[in-house]
Design goal:
The complex is a heterodimer of chains A (about 475) and B (about 140).
Chain A lengths: L17 H12 L7 H7 L1 H14 L1 H14 L6 H9 L1 H33 L4 H21 L1 H28 L16 H15 L16 H31 L16 H36 L1 H8 L18 H14 L6 H27 L13 H20 L3 H25 L9 H8 L5 H4 L1
Helix pairs in contact in A: 1-8, 1-10, 2-3, 2-9, 3-9, 3-10, 4-10, 4-14, 5-6, 5-14, 6-7, 6-11, 6-12, 6-13, 6-14, 6-16, 7-8, 7-11, 7-13, 8-10, 8-11, 10-11, 14-15, 14-16
Chain B lengths: L1 H25 L9 H7 L10 H22 L4 H21 L3 H29 L10
Helix pairs in contact in B: 1-3, 1-5, 3-4, 4-5
Classes of the chains: A mainly alpha (about 475), B mainly alpha (about 140).
């Protein structure tokens, strides 16, 4: 696990089967097709399907393959924070970790808030009851997370079964009862090709995000350089197929593309309504269960990954030391998990949805930093032992990343100027935080070679503390 | 890196000084509907009118210019404090722009000094990484 110059650590490494790893990845990157309805209604069904097929090659695949290559070469807790740090230095590593963590702090609360909104829609309940239910949900899943990534993985596997089964039912029944060509009309009426694409692009980008997340957990999984890259690649194909098939089947069965949205009005068509049309109340009920389970899965998955940067930054003496403690029995960064859970408990009290758009801004900056680090590491350390390597020379890789940067920059300005400036404030918090924490705690040096760490990770005993 | 940061901070300070003087002299019409965009897009707060907004924002700009120039002067001796001060000023100004009646117009006005101040923060962050001795070696997992 560590070479002679490094201190003992108490994170527990667990065995994770491939199916569990894929379930975790699927949670972080998909967790159902809900939200896709807005793209159909704004861009048109044909263009929606085209975007779902093409966008991954310029948006999701670069991040997925970068995570696979660097995850196979540098399988460490903190994932991309450590990759960026190794390639571009401590300052930029901190920025990537900070921006990503800040966005996740807000993001995770949304999934609980959405679940509560659905429940509140069925039962009339006072505000404090709504909050109490949310608090209990957060506590339960925080406990699951503190118990360890293996138990979290199993919980997410069960959740994804609840998510996938209704959608598979919808796909089978939807194609069986298809009434319209799922590619027709190709573009929303009255819109140009680029105008229609712009309307749906932000949602499609969001649907294809999250491929960097699992790298955060590399220090808690046995043989992460083997498990995570494979899970990433399997999941990538799974998610594209899932989105395309569910969207095509749902729309083919119901038609009426202009009314597809998530606004919940009497004329709105969403996947639950599509389920009702093709399979009656039973399928609609299953899809409602999938919707709630999907949100809870996203909360649990992102509580797991979103709590790790604070822990690793603390370990690297770049954040409050309090966050750097592992649970003495379960070997998880329990303080970091608890802090994030408590923050989410506070956030679900009020209206904070506007912060989500600022989140996108922070994520885009983190993503661009990660891909830049990928190219820099290819140039700086060409001989790094990459067990998985994207089959492209570095120049072609850099060229392939250009559209990703273009899409990210477009995303920064599509939400209006107030959000743009709000996002800038979030990004600027990065250098301020670095100046504060670095001058207070001084940071630590990264050893030159991580080979010892990587090799040891494959043969590590179940608990790192046992080795010590 | 500190020298470059100092030059950028000076330039930002002078730019903001210019903006402050322009606001005071030309008195653009920005009295009405502060926070209006937030209310419309984010559904938070309530819009308000600010009498003499051009004068008030002009004075604030002069104050920010003065503090930015003080920050620039501090960079050779206390660059961490200077960096934090300059970037926090930039963040506060960004919040002001977001609250203004026309954030797009605000972004155009603030773009150059805002970017210069952001660069100062990033440069001084990298400078701190260069000069601050780390304490120990990372724990690799």
């Amino acid at each position: 696990m560590t070479n002679g110059s490094t201190a003992a650590v108490g994170l527990k490494r667990v065995k994770m089967r491939m199916i569990t790893a894929v379930a975790v990845m699927f949670t972080l990157t998909c967790s159902g097709s809900f939200g896709m309805e807005d793209i159909i209604g704004s861009s048109g069904p044909g263009l929606t399907l085209l975007m779902l097929l093409v966008l991954p090659f310029f948006w999701a695949l670069p991040m997925a393959l970068t995570s696979a290559e660097l995850g196979s070469a540098l399988p460490e807790e903190g994932g991309f924070y450590r990759w960026v740090r190794r390639g571009m230095g401590e300052f930029w590593g901190f920025q990537a970790g900070w921006w990503w963590q800040l966005s996740l702090y807000v993001d995770t609360a949304v999934y609980v808030a959405l679940t509560l909104d659905y429940v509140a829609g069925w039962f009339d309940m006072p505000g404090w009851v709504r909050w109490l239910i949310g608090f209990v949900i957060i506590l339960i899943f925080a406990y699951v997370n503190i118990r360890g990534i293996d138990i979290t993985g199993w919980v997410l596997t069960v959740i994804q079964v609840i998510v996938i089964v209704p959608f598979v039912t919808l796909v089978i029944l939807g194609f069986a009862k298809a009434q319209v060509n799922p590619f027709s009309p190709f573009i929303a009426e009255g819109e140009s090709f680029w105008g229609a694409m712009g309307l749906g692009l932000a949602v499609a980008m969001w649907m294809y995000s999250g491929y960097e997340s699992m790298s955060q957990l590399a220090g808690e999984i046995e043989r992460p350089q083997h498990v995570i890259p494979r899970a990433l690649l399997i999941n990538m194909g799974l998610v594209i197929a899932f989105y395309v098939l569910t969207t095509a089947a749902g729309y083919a069965a119901v038609g009426d593309w202009a009314n597809w949205n998530t606004e919940g009005t009497s004329t709105s068509i969403d996947f639950i309504e599509a389920g009702r049309v093709v399979g009656g109340g039973a399928v609609a009920g299953l899809l409602i269960a999938a919707l709630i389970a999907g949100n809870l899965g996203l909360f649990t998955g992102y509580l797991a990954t979103g709590s790790r940067p604070a822990y690793v930054l603390s370990k690297d003496k770049l954040f409050f030391r309090w966050f750097g403690k592992e649970h003495p029995k379960y070997g998880t960064p329990y303080r970091s998990i608890l802090f994030m859970a408590l923050l989410n408990s506070v956030l679900i009290l009020g209206s904070f949805q506007f912060l989500i758009v600022i989140d996108v801004f922070l994520l885009m900056f983190a993503y661009m930093t990660i891909l830049t680090a990928m190219v820099v590491l290819r140039v700086k350390e060409p001989d790094l032992d990459r067990r998985f390597r994207i089959p492209l020379p570095t120049w072609a890789l850099a060229l392939w990343f250009v559209p990703f940067f273009g899409i990210a920059i477009v995303a920064l300005v599509t939400n209006g100027w107030a959000y743009f400036v709000g996002g800038c404030v979030g990004v600027l918090s990065g250098p301020v935080a670095y100046l504060l924490f670095k001058s207070k705690y001084h940071g630590v040096e990264l050893p030159d070679t991580l080979t010892v760490s990587r090799d040891a990770a494959g043969a590590l005993p179940t608990t790192a503390a046992e080795e010590v | 890196m500190r020298k470059t940061a100092m030059v950028l901070a000076w330039l930002a300070g002078l730019c903001i000084l210019g903006i402050g003087i322009w606001l005071l002299v030309s008195q653009p019409s920005i009295e009405k509907d502060w926070l209006g965009v937030w209310v419309e897009e984010m559904e938070i707060g309530s819009p308000f009118d600010m009498g003499g907004a051009a004068t008030i924002t002009g004075i604030i700009a002069l104050a920010i210019a003065g503090l930015t120039i003080i920050g620039a002067l501090l960079i050779p001796t206390r660059f961490v404090v200077a960096g934090i001060m300059i970037v926090v000023l930039d963040m506060l100004a960004c919040l002001g722009v977001a609250m203004s009646p026309d954030p797009k117009w605000g972004v155009i006005v603030w773009a150059i000094p805002g970017l210069l101040m952001a660069f100062v923060g990033f440069l001084l962050g990298m400078e701190l990484e260069r000069v601050q001795e780390p304490e120990g070696v990372a724990e690799l997992e």
